[in-house]
Amino acid sequence: MTQNYRITLLPGDGIGPEIMAVAVDVLNVVGKKFDLQFEFTEALIGGAAIDAVGEPLPADTLNTCRQSDAVLLAAIGGYKWDSLPSNMRPEAGLLGLRAGLNLFANLRPAKILPQLIDSSTLKREIVEGVDIMVVRELTGGIYFGKPKGIFATETGEKRGVNTMAYTEAEIDRIGRVAFETAKKRSGKLCSVDKANVLEVSQLWRDRMTQLSAEYPDVELSHLYVDNAAMQLVRSPKQFDTIVTGNLFGDILSDAAAMLTGSIGMLPSASLGASAPGVYEPVHGSAPDIAGQDKANPLAQVLSAAMMLRYGLNQPVAAEFIEKAVLQVLEQGYRTGDIMSADMNLLGCKAMGELLIQTLEGRI
Ligand code: IPM
Ligand code: MG
């Protein structure tokens, strides 16, 4: 029987529309093979929404997302909107979407593909075998804490303020996702904080330690964030699952991504307790190469695979896509960001076409 899914597409800005087009083609081909029918609805977010309707997250977009089974997002932002006030910038649209759908858990896998080891800036022996899952808290911490703003002091001088705060409940719910994730992987969880300086981190560490009693099969360790950043580039294979707050997770997930050669390869899933999840590449909108057919669509395509696996419970279809991506890389095809000697350089469209051929060839 055909399974029907309502998918909201948020192409956003920069290279977003180019890479989204590839992911949609891939989903349609895979849909045919596995008897899945996708009903796609495109909606505005980020700079594209600002230009069209004057705000980065129109109410229509949030409603459309809420009514769908999953949301596939590309990327938002660009120089053009950089000087707008912070609540009107494209980024505010993304943060509003995360908050609006209550997507508190962000899963960012960083796994090195054997085909891309030579694209990493680190030595082969350091990165070979790296397979890390960063579980980043996404709707709390300093991104959302109050007070926030730029205020005038008594002397008239301006003072910028953000607040890093977590309640026990917020820590516990991300902690549980992380322990469950670690349990399904190698059973090692590293919680990253700054408990030597920040009270919010002391509470974070206490709660993680308490929670660990409920997960005897998961080995919990703690690192300060500065040390964690150093260890990630010094000896990344010591990590399996990492759990951390919003800001530390933002930073560490970019660092972890680079171990794999290119941030252009990595997907992510943002999940809540019940609302549809949002699946998006870890990379940004790359305005410098937008519209030039140079973007790497693979993180977007792998995000669609993650959507199939985590959001639609179609792991076989997800794996089918992941295998096709590996096959194309195996055959030596590369976009500019992962290019190395003796490989064949392709643009975004050509990479998409090759993927489709590969998927159809396997059917
Ligand atoms: C990310 C991005 C976002 C973040 C920006 C675009 C708001 O860097 O998803 O990692 O900081 O969370
Ligand atoms: Mg980031």
Mean pLDDT reading: 96
What is the name of the CATH class of the largest domain? Answer: Alpha Beta
Radius of gyration: 20 Å
Number of contiguous helices: 12
The fold-level CATH name of the largest domain is Isopropylmalate Dehydrogenase
| Largest sheet strand order | 2-1-3-12-11-4-5-10-8-9
Strand content: 15-25%
Bound molecules: 3-isopropylmalic acid, magnesium ion
Q: H/E element string?
A: EHEHHEHEHEEEHEHEHEHEEHHEEH
* Overall structural domain count: 2
What distinguishing features does this structure have?
Isopropylmalate Dehydrogenase, alpha/beta, binds magnesium ion, single chain, 12 helices, 363 residues, binds 3-isopropylmalic acid, globular
Question: Can you lay out the helices and strands and say which pair or pack?
Answer:
Blueprint: E1 3-12, H1 16-34, E2 36-42, H2 46-53, H3 59-66, E3 70-75, H4 90-100, E4 105-111, H5 124-127, E5 131-137, E6 145-152, E7 158-163, H6 168-184, E8 188-193, H7 199-212, E9 219-224, H8 225-234, E10 241-244, H9 246-259, E11 267-271, E12 278-281, H10 298-311, H11 315-330, E13 333-334, E14 344-345, H12 348-362
Parallel strand pairs: 1-2, 1-3, 3-12, 5-10, 8-9, 8-10, 13-14
Antiparallel strand pairs: 4-5, 4-11, 6-7, 11-12
Magnesium ion is lined by residues 250, 254.
